[in-house]
Amino acid sequence: MSDDDERGEEYLFKIVIIGDSAVGKSNLLTRYARNEFNPNSKATIGVEFQTQSMVIDGKEVKAQIWDTAGQERFRAVTSAYYRGAVGALVVYDITRSSTFENVGRWLDELNTHSDTTVAKMLIGNKCDLESIRAVSVEEGKSLAESEGLFFMETSALDSTNVKTAFEMVIREIYSNMSRKQLNSDSYKEELSSNRVSLVKNDNEGTKTFSCCSR
Amino acid sequence: MICCGYMWKSGGEDLQGFYPVRSEYVADVPRTRFKSRAGKTLSARRWHAAFTEDGNLDMERVLRRIQRGGIHPSIKGEVWEFLLGGYDPDSTFEERNILRNHRREQYYAWKEECRRMVPLIGSGKFVTMAVVAEDGQPLEESSVENQGWLVKTAITDKRLLQWMLVLSQIGLDVVRTDRYLSFYENESNQARLWDILSIYTWLNPDIGYVQGMNDICSPMIILLEDEADAFWCFERAMRRLRENFRTTATSMGVQTQLGMLSQVIKTVDPRLHQHLEDLDGGEYLFAIRMLMVLFRREFSFLDALYLWELMWAMEYNPNLFASYEKPENRNNFSQQDPRLLKKYGKFERKYVKSGHNEQHNTLAVFVVASVLETKNKRLLKEAKGLDDVVQILGDIAGNLDARKACKEALKIHEKFLKKANRQ
């Protein structure tokens, strides 16, 4: 290992947030990246992104998180941004079951356009709206288990689990990166062009967390 | 609600008062730069003076003003109707009244047609949840929140089903359209936006509803009191923009404009184009939003309207009205009388002069190019990835000057035409 690797290590992970329209993707991201929630946030047109850093094992790990338009008709252009993503958050709205039923489509979409994602998390957002819940925690959990995803219920509004969810995905990506890959020249090359790609790890475990389990 | 202090001789008119912002969001909206400027902005007085007794409008004079300083908020709606080719400036008051009444009747007939299919249309209420299952079957009542109306018998007609399925998407966008404006605190105004978008979608199944159309439609409802007039103004704006919203499984219409943008940058600033291409941004996807919602997100509400009217004035073509009303005669418009040149907007005139009167680039593409050019140095120096490009362009929100952007756009256009002709 050269000196270069010792001091200049820098991690940059590309993560995408996908899911149906108005499930709260943009607000999850602004809650995580800026600790803000905007009740008047507008529909995302095309793609936007934010970066946020965290420290793991004393190293700074930067996540570049891409937020996409939810309407199906934007997929032709938004899917271009899946390329090179190593993490993905697939979001649904716990008060609208149709958004949960569409999760499978989003996963297909992700698998078609990106073969590099090592960490995927299913997120049931708006768990502050318990009184009008339409998707139970168990339904979310069991879908996540069958698809091999992490699972968590969040609320961008009251912050529940938002940081935890993002950080779990980031940690998972980090721990999935073998030293060998990190030190390979091709990896460094890709890192320098902001596109970290990793081979998919087959034996990922499924862990589930929920904010509102009763 | 409308503030009408005519104080502009002292230069302190509160134009934002025309589009009040909810007090709790004042801090969140970008600062408005537009100012009504005496001798430059088209004022109500100037506007009314531009009509003859019969109602013929001196469009040349009006265009000159608008291109210099925009339109005063008190008359925006009625001027836009002309700018967008809704009415013929060479017609009389009487002729236009007849046409207006005819259009209103037409709109309300369409609305009635839609209401018979979905009684929520025109009810003052709207939906954000599905009214029918994706396969056309009725939804189980128990599975849905009570929202007033649901499909009772299975829908088999494909067009009808497609339309019904998108109504909730329109609703989801309506509740987050310009919510910071006091205007949309009123639920009946939200319902009007939903009605117009729904009716437009029914009438245009080839385009349907795509997110972003709400951003285009919203100002029309605020500027034009009559719902039918607002619909027609939106319909005319969409004539220019609709191709951007045409989508297939593998493409979006706006990519055509992105391709033009790519051509323009490649021609006028090859170095920047190469740099973007090296960053895998040669498709210019990062400019999608600017083109689809015409800079609504980069400008304050009033400044976006100002930019739109500048662009539309510069793109004005005296044959616009006729080309919409009698599209079969479209080919007759190519032969131009040079004396008519002054009746064109600055941008359009260039094409007529150079004889390129066939399908051509829209000014919006050059406005995006001008924005990229103002960031040229930073993009070349600091952008090491597509993310940096998005970031650098993200910083422009609230920092753009509509007039400067249009001025620069015209310069780039000129440069582009020269270089393109040489090649």
UniProtKB/TrEMBL annotation, chain A:
- Source organism, top-level taxon: Eukaryota
The similarity annotation says: Belongs to the small GTPase superfamily. Rab family.
What's the protein name? Ras-related protein RABA5c
Automatic annotation (TrEMBL), chain B:
The cross-references to InterPro entries, in alphabetical order and at most eight, read: Rab-GAP-TBC_dom, Rab-GAP_TBC_sf
Q: Which residues form the Rab-GAP TBC domain?
A: 70-315
Which SMART domains did the record assign?
TBC
Gene3D superfamilies the record matches:
putative rabgap domain of human tbc1 domain family member 14 like domains, Ypt/Rab-GAP domain of gyp1p, domain 3
PROSITE patterns for this protein: TBC_RABGAP
List, alphabetically, the PANTHER family matched: TBC1 DOMAIN FAMILY MEMBER 15-LIKE ISOFORM X1, TBC1 DOMAIN FAMILY MEMBER GTPASE-ACTIVATING PROTEIN
Name of the protein described by the UniProt record = TBC1 domain family member 15-like isoform X1
Q: Supply the source organism for this entry.
A: Camelina sativa (False flax)
Q: Which gene encodes it?
A: LOC104722027
